[in-house]
Design brief:
Layout: E1 4-5, E2 12-15, H1 16-23, H2 27-35, E3 43-44, E4 50-52, H3 54-66, H4 73-86, H5 93-132
Antiparallel strand pairs: 1-2, 2-4, 3-4
Amino acid sequence: MSPTTSAPSTATLMQIGDVAERTSLSLRTIRHYEEVGLLPEAQRSPGGFRLYTEDAVTRLLLIKQMKPLDFTLEQMREILDVRQRLASPRCSDKTRAGLQATLEDYQRLADDKLTELRRKVEHAEAFAAHLREPLS
């Protein structure tokens, strides 16, 4: 993995293959997330290669955590936007309160989805145990 640095910035930039390796996502998936707006458009090298920042890797890892909970693309987009806006020091107290309430709604939804996922795993484990039983 050889990072590339852009001329105007000292930020370390990575090619898509390096990002794929770090996130265990396919190149196609990373491109898709960029195309649907979950990931900001990548910078490009003089040769046209996509270049990603550490923030993009962090964002992809968060998206990867949302996927098993079946959040829609729109929900993922909103969660990412809310988190980014909450991190801004220019966010007013009133705006921050509204964003925090939205995030709390998503936290409850994630808890509900996780409960459902655990129920599905229990059913799958019971089925797998059933398959291990000898036929009579």
